[in-house]
Amino acid sequence: MMMALLKDRRGLSLVELLVVVLIISIIAAIAQPQLTHVIVKARAADAVSDMQAVRVALYSYQADQNAWPAEVGSGQMPAGLDAYLPEGFNFASEDYTLDFDNWGGTPYTVGVTLVTADAILGVTLLKMLASPKWNAADKYTWVVE
Amino acid sequence: MSDTYIDESNPPNRPKSGEYGDVLSDVLNDQARRNELRKNAAANPQSRTRLHPAMPPVLALVSIWLWAFPPAVLRPEPPTIPVANQEAGLRMEMYIQFSKIQGYVSEHGRLPRNLEEVGDVSSAVRYEPLTASVFRLSGQTGTVTVDYTSTEPVEVLLADARTIVSGGGLPTPQGGPAI
Question: For position B122, what pLDDT does the model report?
């Protein structure tokens, strides 16, 4: 009885297994570009959220100090702004650095610039931001005030 | 286990009464039917659906083609910035550098030797002092090039850049970020 059962058992042959693997590979090839696109959008949304955090912190700073922070270099935290940002907030990350700009009033007063070599990330981010905003080379600037 | 005790090919007649009899009869009938199907399948090994021999190589070729040369229809369009917005962004960047240079001149009484002296350098903008008081700014991003000499009115440099960066061109989320 047991021998008969073993004889009757059927599984996948190597060729059938190969066909299954190839079909999965084709589905993955079709899905992969869309997946990459979704990942870029998620990274851009993350960057927008960082820029918004800086924007809120700048307004809070301005309300308390009646002045905007002084200009600093790219990737550096403006003096006194850390108290208004979430704990551990960093202006320099793996994908990009943030740059606080104090232009002094003409035509805009302050803004946040994201500097990244990843053009797809930058342009995706720029499309998510409200105006005024602009891009020049690897800089994506969002006007705060 | 039940082969010894139950003759599957010849199920007993249903007992005259009782639910137990009905169930037992159904089980034995089903067992007999399964045995019959199993015998038929063993007698005819070709009954299993066979793959066409060309199928694996065709699938392999399709897979290689999709991975190596994905057709445009599968690739999402890379986001781009309209040329007008590229130019407006470049002009804004140059205007900011211009303002910084003006501020430097007011403070030091002379033109800076290079853009490093006035702060962050933009890779899109090149600065060149022409005389003691005249300088040139050249900007390039993508295919757009803008040149400005400080003898020209600054409105020439800014043009309609402010209007464009304030809302024209790039699509903006409805109402902007909720802050």
Answer: 81
Q: What is the ipTM of this complex?
A: 0.80
* Residue B42 near chain A (CB below 8 Å): yes
Residue B19 lies in a domain: yes
pLDDT the model gives residue B177: 42
What SS3 state is found at A144?
coil
User: Which domain range does residue B119 map to?
Assistant: 83-165
B99/A132 CB distance under 8 A:
no
Domain contains B141: yes
- Whole-number Å distance between alpha carbons of A112 and A48: 11
Q: How many domains does chain A have?
A: 1
Report if residue B150 sits inside a domain: yes
Buried b / exposed e over B21-52, threshold 16 CB at 10 Å, is: eeebeeebeeeeeeeeeeeeeeeeeeeeeeee
Range of the domain at A63: 16-143
